[in-house]
Model the fold of this input.
Amino acid sequence: DAKTTQPTSMDCAEGRAANLPCNHSTISGNEYVYWYRQIHSQGPQYIIHGLKNNETNEMASLIITEDRKSSTLILPHATLRDTAVYYCIVRVPGGYNKLIFGAGTRLAVHP
Amino acid sequence: KAGVTQTPRYLIKTRGQQVTLSCSPISGHRSVSWYQQTPGQGLQFLFEYFSETQRNKGNFPGRFSGRQFSNSRSEMNVSTLELGDSALYLCASSLGRVNTEAFFGQGTRLTVV
Done:
């Protein structure tokens, strides 16, 4: 399983962009990068996923480097409600609904 | 569209007892996975069921078991409860195809005393 490395914690001012990095240097060619977040004591929430191209949805943008060894999740205008633990996950090939969670990044959005 | 429903939300059990947790997936989803979350170990994969068959299994003892019914609803059972089984138990449902997103329920908070 490809391992991911994320900073333990980050801060962001409300209204500014939050850029959350993830390193996945051992990722295989057919493995996707997924991002989830977990607001305190709730179930994780799916944010976005991608293979090699940059992706954008209503919640966030995902930028994957050309060599696919790292990626960045971007929350364009962070709000207090974005305070959560963010998990970067490399999806196991054939793993279907199996997600391997690391420790994640604890993002604190301040007024 | 209703989300993933887990029952009960909270549970207190005594050491040595057994417990059954329930998960109703999103309509049309055939895959249900179970996870354990503790402060020390984080989120850990327990097992996945697809079309009533266990398809993936994590590294947990045999006291942890599950099943899935024909309507895709799933239950997990923990026998001979230990204090260390106190955790938030989460289930996630998905269509079950490769690389489709999984949607989580709110979890069942189990406390073993």
Summary: Chain A has no helices and nine strands. The beta strands of chain A are 9-13, 18-23, 33-38, 45-50, 55-56, 61-64, 70-75, 84-90, 105-110.
